[in-house]
Design brief:
Layout lengths: L5 H6 L41 H14 L3 E5 L2 H12 L4 E6 L4 H12 L3 E6 L4 H6 L4 E7 L11 H10 L3 E5 L17 E4 L14 E5 L2 H14 L5 H11 L2 H19 L5 E5 L9 H7 L6 E6 L2 H9 L6 E2 L9 E3 L11 H7 L5 E5 L5 H16 L7
Parallel strand pairs: 2-3, 2-4, 4-5, 5-6, 10-11
Antiparallel strand pairs: 1-7, 6-7, 8-9, 9-12, 11-12
């Protein structure tokens, strides 16, 4: 019998395993506690923070998809960052992170730095000399590729080699790609983190995170530490996330088709000062993304020539896209990073990262491609000062 492929094994996690009623979909285990046969004789589960059968099915699926030894499922994406900081960074240690990372990550690391817990170095990972110089004394390097919101691509193989040579551990945030478009462990990462809220769940109805670990012994300790810190996800959130993951492959393929239609509508429009999407041959990271990813993703950013006034005109009366934070759902979303996802960054940090007031980040959903393209064309016309809604 032929061995099942990685995706099939992952999406079928738990299916057909119910022994009570032979249900196809595994039941959700909401119980907070479990019966001991006698003192010290546990069935393998005792308290749901430490272990839960539903959460374990999601963990198995994520570890399978990422090619890791194990996955630890936690309550949020930032809980995953918190867990890795506690695992890898001693008091007074150094974290090296991209200067254009997610605003919540910047805020968390900056908070720790201002309290003296650690030193946070935010640097340009696309400048090899600057990056290597930042590694002195580092314990943890956090790479986010593609980056949020400018879709810069980091060479994970090169960064892993330099990180390990410096005696540090590489963490890759794979939220934007999902494990179907990129597998950082195969490229040298020691840990992979996700905000499972995004593509893995895909329905904008549950918040979650995960850490996937390369080394089996380390993975066991990461799971133990998540329990100690109280970061593990609940059963219902895990159930919803696993339900969402089962359609990930189909969603990713449709996202890709729709994103090309949106890019075609935006490319060359006079209201656009810059279009950031690694699928464009003009994108600085295009060739690298083509090598280390199996697709270019469905996130793009549009930098409008007219700055914030143009962004406000773009958003006024915008159809199909909802102005909201988050990404990776079945619905199309748009956000203004400077006032939303990256508002927690200082103005100086945003300026260094290149996040201006005219920048908009789009997460392309599963609506009809022609409707998405029409909405963007109308909005760009408004941004330029054309159309009925311009004023």
């Amino acid at each position: 019998m032929a061995e099942l492929g990685t995706w099939t094994r992952a999406m079928r996690s738990g299916l057909g395993t119910d022994t009570s009623h032979k249900a196809v979909v595994p039941p959700i285990h909401l119980s907070t506690n479990y019966v001991f046969a006698a003192p010290g004789e546990s069935s393998g589960y005792d308290y749901s923070r430490a272990g839960n059968p539903t959460r374990d099915l999601l963990s198995d699926a994520l570890a399978t998809l990422e090619g890791g030894a194990a996955a630890t499922v936690v309550a949020t994406g930032l809980a995953a960052v918190t867990l890795l900081v506690e695992e890898l960074v001693p008091v007074g240690g150094v974290v090296v992170c991209q200067h254009d990372c997610y605003g919540g990550t910047w805020r968390l690391l900056n908070h720790h730095a201002t309290r003296g817990r650690l030193e946070a170095r935010f640097v340009d990972f696309n400048d090899p000399e600057v990056f290597k110089a930042s590694l002195d004394g580092a314990s943890m390097v956090l790479a986010e590729t593609p980056s949020n919101p400018l879709l810069r691509i980091t060479d994970l193989r090169a960064v892993a080699e330099a990180t390990h040579a410096a005696g540090a551990q590489l963490v890759a945030d794979n939220t934007f790609c999902s494990p179907l478009l990129q597998r950082p462990i195969d490229l040298g990462a020691d840990y992979v983190l996700h905000s499972t809220t995004k593509f893995i769940n895909g329905h904008s109805d549950v918040v979650g995170g995960a850490v996937v670990t390369r080394d089996p012994e380390t993975a066991e300790h990461v799971g133990w530490l998540a329990n100690v810190l109280g970061l593990t996800a609940g059963a219902f959130d895990s159930y919803l996330t696993l339900r969402g993951l089962r359609t990930l492959d189909a969603r990713i393929r449709m996202h890709a088709i729709n994103t090309e239609a949106v890019v075609d509508a935006a490319q060359g429009h006079p209201a656009v000062a810059a279009l950031h999407w690694p699928g464009l041959e003009t994108h600085p990271g295009h060739e690298l993304a083509a090598r280390q990813q199996s697709g270019f993703g469905s996130l793009l950013s549009i930098d409008l020539a007219g700055g914030r006034p143009a962004a406000e005109r773009f958003l006024q009366g915008l159809q199909v896209f909802h102005l909201a934070e988050s990404l990776g759902g079945v619905e199309s979303l748009i956000c203004h990073p400077a006032t939303m996802t990256h508002a927690g960054m200082s103005p100086e940090a945003r300026a260094v990262a290149g996040i201006g007031d005219g920048l908009l980040r789009l997460s392309v959903g599963l609506e009809a491609a022609e409707d998405l393209a029409a909405a963007i064309t109308e909005a760009l016309d408004r941004a330029q000062g054309r159309g009925e809604s311009a004023g």
